[in-house]
Amino acid sequence: MSKSNPTDRLYSREHEWVKDNGDGTSIVGITDHAQEMLTDIVFVELPLIGKKVSKSEPMAVVESVKSVSDVYAPVSGEVLDVNLKLEETPELINQDAFGQGWIAKMRLSNAAELKTLLSAADYEQFVKEEKH
Amino acid sequence: MKKTPLYEKHVALNAKIIDFGGWAMPVQYSNVIDEHKATRNAAGLFDICHMGEIEVKGPQALDLLQLVLTRNLADQKIGQVKLSALLNEEGGIIDDLTVYKLDNNSYMLVTNATPKERDWQWIKAVSQDNGFNCSLKDISGTMGKLDLQGPLSEEILQKLTDANLQTLRFYHFCESQVAGIPAIISRSGYTGEDGFEIYAAANDMSNIWDKLMITGASLGIKPAGLGARDTLRLEGGMMLNGQDITETVSPLEVPYSWIVDINKEFIGKTALMTKKNSGFGHKLVGIEMTGRGIARHGYKVFHKKREIGIVTSGTFSPTLNKAIGLAFVDEACSAPDTIIAVAIRDTMAEAKIVKLPFYKREKR
């Protein structure tokens, strides 16, 4: 079973999460539900620092043994930092998708986009509906 | 989608089911790495009921097989299994299949799932056209197949059969029983590991599956899906029909020259020899990623910035902990240790050509 989705962040319909640091920067990752669907993650391609991404544009790639999946930018902005630990230990996403398995730190270019994202409760509902 | 007799078991085990050539098959139960490692270290149990079985019987059974298959079967002993290729007139591989010699004038062919119908029609037509005195029967619907693979397979299976498994050699089989059910036990497989392929009536599959799972529980047996089957076979340097080899590929441009006996006549030989003499130009080789990334099916391969080929299979190897694959490359750049590059999305990732297999088990 998936771990419960923390309420201190927002969620996209493509199964990414965004946590506002309160200083104009945000942390982005994929949800526990997403890692559970992907299963054994063996490779992560991180974005370049300084890269500007638009909402819903591919910004990283996660690969399991069998599959290659894009990670879409949940919001537009500039990549300030990336989780280099994922290059050596991509399984951190499986183990701790909401914490140690974070993917990038971003500066949002359009804070209004946050309103298009889902709360933890709405995301849970969305996942339930998607299963049917 | 077609379902095997074990479909309900897979659903009950919460397997992820995919469409594999029209069959609803389990791709994984827990995850691929777990199932892969269980097979390398203990035992994995695979539902292989989707594969085809064709019976060939009669005074001219061998004549027919010698004509349609590339391998010389004249010296095959009763109880021996031989891998062979079925070619079209152009020398392309219709299927790579195994031949079981059950008795003099009695054989069973075990085919891949997807080309089975094509194999059946092809062999039947050749038999009719030549007026061979033999009968053919497609028994795929009533025959089931389970693969028990891994170093502890013998220990598990021995608890359920009177057959002496210790003396059963690789690529040999016996007609015996498993848990009291009549079965063919073959020491062979598609994982690069020791193990058995077990054939019995489709109706008995569920019973044999349960007995093996219960008997193997304390030894660490796990059900394993097509995902692990794919990573295991690739580590073992084995090709996948329909992916690495297709009807436009001949056995001499892939690591299958050892199953072609050019000292006998077979369908496709003339075209094959013509192509061989003019040179194939490319060759299927093993590759190992030395740069970051995983080569996947369809990615392009480069040598000194020149495109030289394409990846046919690629994955992360759970045993070797690195990315490996098979690729068709220009023959001129196909020597082991040649440095190549694989185009992975926007980047060129370094790789090198290596000898097959990637993984070799310790001899028992």
What does this structure look like?
The complex is a heterodimer of chains A (132) and B (364). Chain A has 132 residues and is of the alpha+beta class. Chain A has a single domain, classed as RNA polymerase II/Efflux pump adaptor protein, barrel-sandwich hybrid domain (OB fold (Dihydrolipoamide Acetyltransferase, E2P)). Chain A is 20% helix and 33% strand. Chain A has helices spanning 32-38, 85-88, 92-95, 120-131; strands spanning 10-11, 16-20, 25-30, 41-45, 52-53, 58-64, 68-72, 77-82, 104-108. Chain A has a six-stranded antiparallel sheet. Chain A is globular and about 35 Å long. The model of chain A has no long low-confidence stretch (mean pLDDT 95). Chain B is an alpha+beta fold and 364 residues long. Chain B has three domains: 7-49 and 142-235, 2-Layer Sandwich (Gyrase A, domain 2); 52-138, Alpha-Beta Plaits, CATH 3.30.70; 281-354, Elongation Factor Tu (Ef-tu), domain 3. Chain B contains eight helices and 19 strands. In chain B, the strands form four sheets. A six-stranded mixed sheet of chain B has the order 10-11-12-9-3-13, with helices on both faces. Chain B has a six-stranded antiparallel beta barrel with strand order 14-17-16-15-18-19. A five-stranded antiparallel sheet of chain B has the order 5-6-7-4-8, with helices on one face. The longest helix of chain B has 15 residues, at 116-130. The two termini of chain B are 40 Å apart. In chain B, 46% of the residues are buried. At the A-B interface, β4 and β6 of A face α2 and α7 of B.
